[in-house]
Amino acid sequence: MLPFGSTTLPPLTLTTAGRQTRSMIFSSTRTWIDSKFSLRGKFIVAIGAIISVSYLVFLYRTSIVDNELIIMHAKQQARMLYSQILITRQWVSEHNGLFVMRTDSVDSNPFLDLPSIWDQYGNEYVMRNPAMVTRELSEYSIEKGLGSFRVTSLKPINPANNPDQYEKECMIDFEHGLAESIEITDSPEGRVVRYLAPLDVKDSCLGCHARHGYSQGDIRGALSITIPIAWADEKMRVNNRSLLFIGIVSFVLVSITLLIMFNTLVVSRLERLSTAMTAFPETEPDQSLLLTGNDEIADLSEQFVELCKRLTQSRTELDSTRRQAWLNEKMASMGILSAGIAHEVNNPLGGMLNLVKSLRENPQDLEMQERYLPLIDKGLKRIEHTMRQLLNFGRQETLQYRKIEVGELLSECLELLSYKLKGITIEQDYKLEQEYYVDAEALKQIFINLGLNGIQAMPNGGTLSIDSKLIDSKLHFRFKDTGIGIAKEDMAHIFDPFFTTKDVGVGTGLGLSVTYSLIDQMNGSISVESVAGIGTEFTVIIPAKILATNEIEEQNG
User: Fold this and answer.
1) Is residue 359 domain-shared with residue 411, that is, in the same domain?
2) How many angstroms separate the CA atoms of 188 and 190, rounded?
3) How confident is the model at residue 526, as a pLDDT?
4) Is there a single domain that holds both residue 383 and residue 411?
5) Among 396, 429, 449, which residue terminates a domain?
6) Spatial separation of the C-alpha atoms in residues 452 and 459, rounded to whole Å
7) What's the number of domains the chain is made of?
8) 129-167 pLDDT tens trace
């Protein structure tokens, strides 16, 4: 039963769709709270929700218990009244009825064989049988607001005792063994408890009802009792309003107290810690950040100071290691390049040695000198050009932005890799027609690493497609090969230092790691798509802002 005057509690059912809806509402509410409230707000909302729900559950449960007690008391009262009425009826029946003096308000019963008698003084007395006593006592009870009761029957002698639908259904059930029936229903004056119990025929009843076919033990009627409980509902509503008011006051007081404590013990201290975190690494935290106390936030601040010290040390070591790794990878790449460049140098060198030998053997042959000297000069310039490229690639420099022709830089790197292009076709699509401010040495390292990676992935030949373009002030480079591809299980590790799937002596495991680091330093990004047996495609995006001269000088320091 529900409080506040309700009579029934609707069944609580939750379908699969209902559970999904509830889950979606909960998820949306949590997302909204996370986006709208600070930690302080979330704390207050959470505590407020817990207190509110707890108090509402308490209020709800209290209302249910109060309502059950009211109903239980009304039922017990109805049973007691039923017993008292039965005793009264039995007393009247055993004394063959009561005779009271007739007045204007006391009339005779036309349904009795002996409705009235007269005494020797001419006074008329009318008879009151159990049914009439029951009815008249009910009238007194109604006047006092204590409820009502009456006798009813499926075959009444007095039409006033005709049953209503509820009484009729109950009396039919009484004939099948039902002992009593209780119902909570509404009336214009409020809720009432209706109690109905059978009236069995006693021996004393046969004096009047034997002629009606009654036998002792028969159930020929019922006693219907109605107990009003509207007054109790009103008391319960007043009590619930008082409890609700107390709950609101308690909630406000608890919320204010919690807010003050939370601001003092948590928020203000976290703000100090947050300020220090924001200032790091430009400003190193010191002991003044350490918060007093032995709680978790004080421990957190102490650990943060220690963490900052370790991060500073690690950053210094990482910068040194990164520079060394870059140099090592550059030297490793230069070693790989040198092996092939030696072939490029030996070819013109061998030719020039033959020319010099011929000139020595024929020092007087001017025609031979005119023909061979330009060839020797051309070969020397080719060797000089190759060695200059190799030396420029091996030079160790910090990141410095300068204005360069990116397309020419890319072509220069491909020229260094040309000795490796056995059975490999290069497809170029350059759309960068102007100069950009970028780090030349870093781009060289990136182009060489990605070019070598694609060439080494095509041992049996293939196609290496390279294109470049400018989109929204960003340089886009794409290196796509038709090689063996990268296995799915290796995709997550290709940028890890020293991770390689190549044979020993072919790859160092640092190429893509250094490439990733350089691109990250230039605030760029690199992505990869690969299908085993089909090929791999690397996409590099690097910002290329047009900087003022003073800004370039400031960056180059």
Assistant:
1) no
2) 6
3) 93
4) no
5) 396
6) 11
7) 2
8) 777 777 777 777 777 777 888 888 887 777 777 888 888
Residue 413 sits in the same domain as residue 546 = yes
At position 487, the amino acid (one-letter code) is A
- Return the beta strands (E) in 289-380 as ranges: none
C-alpha dihedral (222, 223, 228, 232), degrees to nearest 10: -100
Same structural domain, 476 and 526: yes
Q: Please report the pLDDT score of residue 547 as a whole number.
A: 47
Tens of pLDDT along 99-126?
777 777 666 666 666 667 777 777 777 7
pLDDT at 529 over 50: yes
Query: Does 59 map to a domain?
Result: no
Q: What is the pLDDT of residues 169-185, one digit of tens each?
A: 888 888 888 888 888 88
AA identity, residue 508: T
156 lies in some domain: no
In this predicted structure, the answer to whether residue 327 has a pLDDT above a threshold of 80 is no
Structural domain includes residue 270: no
Residue in this structure with the two tokens 């930690």, named with its chain if needed: 39
Residues whose CB falls within 8 Å of the CB of residue 473, separated by 6 or more in sequence, listed in order: 543, 544, 545
- Which domain covers residue 481, as residue numbers? 398-557
CA 262/CA 134 separation, integer angstroms? 69
* 295 within a domain of the structure (yes/no): yes
DSSP secondary structure of 435-493: EEEEEHHHHHHHHHHHHHHHHHT-TT-EEEEEEEEEETTEEEEEEEE-SS---GGGGGG
